[in-house]
Fold this sequence. Notes:
This is Glyoxalase. By secondary structure, the protein is of the alpha/beta class. The chain has one domain (about 5-200): 2,3-Dihydroxybiphenyl 1,2-Dioxygenase, domain 1 (Roll), CATH 3.10.180.10. The chain has helices at about 15-25, 55-65, 125-135, 160-170, and strands at about 5-10, 30-35, 40, 45-50, 70-80, 80-90, 95-100, 115-120, 140, 145-150, 155-160, 175, 180-185, 190, 195-200. An eight-stranded mixed β-sheet has the order 5-6-7-4-8-11-10-9, sandwiched between helices. It has a five-stranded mixed β-sheet with strand order 2-1-13-15-14. The longest helix has 13 residues, at about 55-65.
Amino acid sequence: MSSIEAVTLEVPDPSAASAFYSEAFDLGARVRVRAAQTPTTGFRGFVMSLVVSQPNTVDSYFDTALNAGATPLKPAAKGFWGYGGVLRDPYGTIWKIATSSKKNTGPASRHVDDIVLLLGVADVAATRRFYVERGLPVAKSFGRRYVEFATTNIRLALYGRRAAAKDAGVSPDGSGAHRLVIGGSAGTYADPDGFEWEAASAS
């Protein structure tokens, strides 16, 4: 099965960014940083999602991220599908923290059940074909609206760019570098929307 071993976020100050990600989310080697000054403006076209077990765990991650310097985009709240919120970290990456549960069944933990990398793409069907041709098996598909692949360690999902931005609470406008590199087993290439992949050994 295809895997995504890590995502590398390109930041101006890797030392400060590493400290932030460790304090806010503590995801270990699955989220890495490296120095880059490539220009970027507006929505970078992706959202990192942390799926957790219950609302108070959402609140725990949300609070530590905000205390470390993140900015709320959508405050954590109950919704139709559960409970969650969205924030932007000090380096521009958007994070969604959510659970399908609306009630707490125990104390808050610092455990993430799933990490999902959601790419906002121009053509969901075309990008799905691109990834299937590179060996990524589809786990869920809702026509041209949403696709999720059966990748291990970090899940990969596709959404239309405008829909992804709306869900995150930001404008879909943006240009320049994504400042994201995906490290996995599928090789080294760029997808139709310019998202870069590196072989896991090079991540």
